[in-house]
């Protein structure tokens, strides 16, 4: 088939799919149903923010917070109903063009947050700047690591801290794309993502898992025996054994019913995974082959890609995994996106579940017991 005719065919197919989403909607190409899920996230309480995108949450060693990283490059702290959200820290000194609803690379984009309990320092992954650290008093963060094995950390994502070993584990999701091109990073089909261990004592970093297709969420197990990394397009959760007797080996821990964002360890040593989206016909099709994904990258705007990937109906899903076997224990949803959507993280704390969002200016709290 001539190149011109092939491009025209793809363009017509794309246009038809877009029309079907808009006019036919979820009936035909909406998100798939998950058997056994509970549609309870509609009852969660919303706490609005003055800035978009509280992608990750954490609490300081004294229990203050939560702290969240937002679109304009700052870390905000929740100080209760009376004071609301107050500024705690910022990723970059270049604040002149930082907007509340738009990511500017010079401002940084804080993603996964982790407090170190013994020092009170806050470490975070920045989608442009690498792994950063700020002291207990806040202010301007400093760079910890932005290069591994001579290769730039392009897209630092989520992280966790092994305080016993004085080590940090984090994901570098792509060697090509930063946070601003997040959808391109997993549609391109390139397996260039890495899971990295940084030794705080020696200040040396090494890759412990590579050839990953957009690794996103990361969490350590109880006592740091293994680290989990969520590979978005495949829905697989990879496991790297950090300690004996399996140290240095890797396997598959679990398979998810959708596309993961962050993963967090629970108070009982299980894991909560936030799903950006359930599987949809468009997501299945676009991930069938890298050439399909790359075509959509070239022909569709980011907003339309997100719309199609969600099946025209943004929603919210949280999946609980057994910490020993990786078995799915529980699935919570807002299947219609009436209250929650675009969730990026689930944190279990004091009989409540807290939820962040990669796009929206709000977090949510759900009473569990």
Description:
The protein is globular, with a radius of gyration of 20 Å. The model has no long low-confidence stretch (mean pLDDT 92). Strand 15 (193-199) and strand 16 (204-212) form a beta hairpin. It has one domain (31-367): Neuraminidase (6 Propeller), CATH 2.120.10. The longest helix has 21 residues, at 3-23. With 369 residues, it is α+β, with helices and mostly antiparallel strands. It has helices at 3-23, 26-29, 80-83, 182-187, 281-286, 290-299, 302-309; strands spanning 45-48, 57-58, 67-69, 74-78, 85-90, 110-115, 122-126, 130-134, 139-140, 142-145, 147-148, 151-152, 156-162, 167-172, 193-199, 204-212, 215-220, 226-231, 236-241, 250-255, 258-265, 271-278, 316-321, 328-334, 343-349, 352-357, 362-367. It is built from 7 helices and 27 strands. It has a 5-stranded mixed sheet. It has a 4-stranded antiparallel sheet with strand order 1-27-26-25, with no helix packed on it. It has a 4-stranded antiparallel sheet with strand order 6-7-8-10, with no helix packed on it. Belongs to the strictosidine synthase family. This is Strictosidine synthase conserved region domain-containing protein. The chain crosses the membrane at residues 7-29. One of its GO terms (cellular component) is vacuole. Keywords: Glycoprotein, Membrane, Signal, Transmembrane, Transmembrane helix, Vacuole.
